[in-house]
Protein backbone atom coordinates (compact mmCIF):
# COMPACT_ATOMS: atom_id res chain seq x y z
CA UNK A 1 0.00 0.00 0.00
CA UNK A 2 2.91 2.37 0.61
CA UNK A 3 4.08 1.93 -2.97
CA UNK A 4 0.56 2.43 -4.28
CA UNK A 5 0.12 5.62 -2.24
CA UNK A 6 3.37 6.99 -3.65
CA UNK A 7 2.36 6.07 -7.21
CA UNK A 8 -0.96 7.89 -6.85
CA UNK A 9 0.63 10.93 -5.17
CA UNK A 10 3.27 11.17 -7.89
CA UNK A 11 0.72 10.84 -10.69
CA UNK A 12 -1.69 13.37 -9.18
CA UNK A 13 0.70 15.92 -7.63
CA UNK A 14 4.22 15.11 -8.89
CA UNK A 15 4.97 14.23 -5.26
CA UNK A 16 8.45 13.09 -4.22
CA UNK A 17 9.16 12.10 -0.61
CA UNK A 18 12.95 11.77 -1.08
CA UNK A 19 13.61 10.33 2.40
CA UNK A 20 11.37 7.30 2.63
CA UNK A 21 12.50 4.55 4.99
CA UNK A 22 10.79 2.33 7.58
CA UNK A 23 11.14 5.02 10.24
CA UNK A 24 8.88 7.29 8.16
CA UNK A 25 6.05 4.78 7.81
CA UNK A 26 3.50 4.39 10.60
CA UNK A 27 1.10 1.47 10.88
CA UNK A 28 -2.09 1.24 12.89
CA UNK A 29 -5.04 -1.11 13.01
CA UNK A 30 -8.06 -0.21 10.94
CA UNK A 31 -11.36 -2.03 10.45
CA UNK A 32 -11.61 -1.13 6.76
CA UNK A 33 -11.00 -4.12 4.51
CA UNK A 34 -10.27 -2.05 1.38
CA UNK A 35 -9.18 1.40 0.34
CA UNK A 36 -10.13 3.15 -2.89
CA UNK A 37 -7.75 5.11 -5.13
CA UNK A 38 -8.32 6.81 -8.46
CA UNK A 39 -5.60 6.79 -11.11
CA UNK A 40 -6.09 8.20 -14.59
CA UNK A 41 -9.85 8.15 -14.07
CA UNK A 42 -9.96 4.51 -13.00
CA UNK A 43 -11.12 3.46 -9.53
CA UNK A 44 -8.80 0.97 -7.89
CA UNK A 45 -9.60 -0.97 -4.73
CA UNK A 46 -6.83 -2.46 -2.61
CA UNK A 47 -7.00 -4.80 0.38
CA UNK A 48 -5.75 -3.14 3.55
CA UNK A 49 -5.43 -6.25 5.72
CA UNK A 50 -7.01 -3.97 8.33
CA UNK A 51 -3.95 -1.71 8.45
CA UNK A 52 -3.86 2.04 8.05
CA UNK A 53 -0.58 3.39 6.74
CA UNK A 54 0.71 6.93 7.28
CA UNK A 55 3.80 8.40 5.69
CA UNK A 56 5.56 11.06 7.79
CA UNK A 57 8.57 13.42 7.72
CA UNK A 58 8.24 15.57 4.64
CA UNK A 59 11.41 17.62 5.23
CA UNK A 60 12.94 16.68 1.87
CA UNK A 61 9.65 16.33 -0.01
CA UNK A 62 8.19 18.35 -2.85
CA UNK A 63 4.67 18.50 -4.26
CA UNK A 64 2.89 20.48 -6.95
CA UNK A 65 -0.52 21.93 -6.18
CA UNK A 66 -1.85 23.72 -9.20
CA UNK A 67 0.92 26.00 -10.46
CA UNK A 68 2.73 26.03 -7.10
CA UNK A 69 5.58 23.79 -6.00
CA UNK A 70 5.71 23.32 -2.25
CA UNK A 71 9.27 22.53 -1.24
CA UNK A 72 11.69 23.49 1.50
CA UNK A 73 14.43 25.26 -0.45
CA UNK A 74 17.45 23.79 1.24
CA UNK A 75 19.68 26.27 -0.57
CA UNK A 76 18.40 28.94 1.83
CA UNK A 77 19.46 27.54 5.22
CA UNK A 78 19.68 30.99 6.80
CA UNK A 79 15.90 31.27 6.59
CA UNK A 80 15.64 28.61 9.30
CA UNK A 81 16.50 29.78 12.79
CA UNK A 82 17.34 26.27 14.01
CA UNK A 83 19.36 25.21 10.95
CA UNK A 84 22.20 22.77 11.60
CA UNK A 85 24.19 21.85 8.47
CA UNK A 86 24.01 18.09 7.83
CA UNK A 87 27.22 16.13 7.24
CA UNK A 88 28.25 16.03 3.58
CA UNK A 89 28.09 12.22 3.71
CA UNK A 90 24.33 12.35 4.46
CA UNK A 91 22.54 10.60 1.58
CA UNK A 92 19.82 13.27 1.51
CA UNK A 93 22.43 15.98 1.01
CA UNK A 94 24.15 13.94 -1.71
CA UNK A 95 20.86 13.43 -3.60
CA UNK A 96 19.84 17.06 -3.11
CA UNK A 97 23.19 18.29 -4.46
CA UNK A 98 22.94 15.89 -7.40
CA UNK A 99 19.42 17.05 -8.25
CA UNK A 100 20.35 20.73 -8.07
CA UNK A 101 23.44 20.11 -10.21
CA UNK A 102 21.25 18.47 -12.88
CA UNK A 103 18.41 20.97 -12.93
CA UNK A 104 19.68 23.89 -10.83
CA UNK A 105 16.14 23.98 -9.48
CA UNK A 106 14.98 21.73 -6.66
CA UNK A 107 11.37 22.61 -7.48
CA UNK A 108 11.60 20.83 -10.83
CA UNK A 109 9.78 17.50 -10.86
CA UNK A 110 12.12 14.64 -11.75
CA UNK A 111 9.76 11.67 -11.44
CA UNK A 112 10.61 8.11 -12.34
Automatic annotation (TrEMBL):
Cellular component GO terms held in the UniProt record: cytoplasm; nucleus
GO BP annotations listed: intracellular signal transduction; mitotic cell cycle
Pfam families with a match to the protein in the record: Haspin_kinase (PF12330)
GO molecular function term, any single one: histone H3T3 kinase activity
Official protein name in the record: Protein kinase domain-containing protein
